[in-house]
Amino acid sequence: MSDDALTVEVHWARTVSADVLADVLTRAERERTATVQNAESRNALASSLVLARTAVGAWVGVDADAVELRRRCPRCGSRVHGRPSASWRSVPDDVHWTPVPHVSLARTAGTVVVATTLAGEVGIDVERRIERMFVGFDDVVLAAAEARAVDDEARLRTWVRKEAVLKAIGRGLDVDPRTLVLGPGDEPPRIERGPVGPWHLQDLDPTGGAIGALAVGADGPVSVRVTQVQLTGRY
């Protein structure tokens, strides 16, 4: 069990086939993943759901099947997207009354990541490294000052940092990302204009092929522990 209120546990894993994970997905998760036509996207979704429940369960030392994961969009009420939350089910009384950590998850081709913490609202994002950003990226994502980024990796780094913050405040892309202004992507992360409050923002690259970022609304120094998980078809 994690006992530090200002600790963030980050779990990451390589994606696994949704077919391999079928026995550890809940019925609702199997139904949701079955609607995704692209195999790579379907595998990433299935892997992120299993990893999220595994990570929350690890907070107190219970199996992933003791965790229920939900989403609810504050704008439209959808239960398919929106900020994720977790709750306990079928757990001993001493676990039942244990605070459930905040949780955030992200996925990209080949990699899934999950952050859990009691420190405050949390957001995590990850994107595969790419050779070139799409045409028009700056106009959609970057504020005028940020568009001076010297290379595409700095631009991508700015993007994942923004995504992490927007997830942490529970808004995601309901907010125009250009209204959140960060420091240069090739410098240590900092918020120059954005949500009020103390924020811990840091880069977090789980693999050489992916760029990630973590945002936590925490009033105090945050300790981040990173663990790699091997996903399988059993707990």
Automatic annotation (TrEMBL):
One BP annotation, GO: lysine biosynthetic process via aminoadipic acid
Q: Which UniProt keywords apply?
A: Transferase
What sequence ranges are listed for the domain 4'-phosphopantetheinyl transferase?
A: 122-179
- Which cellular component appears as one GO term in the record? cytosol
Q: Which domain of life is it from?
A: Bacteria
> Which GO terms of the molecular function aspect are on file?
holo-[acyl-carrier-protein] synthase activity; magnesium ion binding
Classification via InterPro entries? 4-PPantetheinyl_Trfase_dom (IPR008278), 4-PPantetheinyl_Trfase_dom_sf (IPR037143), P-Pant_transferase_sf (IPR050559)
Family membership, please give it. Belongs to the P-Pant transferase superfamily. Gsp/Sfp/HetI/AcpT family.
Protein name (database record): 4'-phosphopantetheinyl transferase superfamily protein
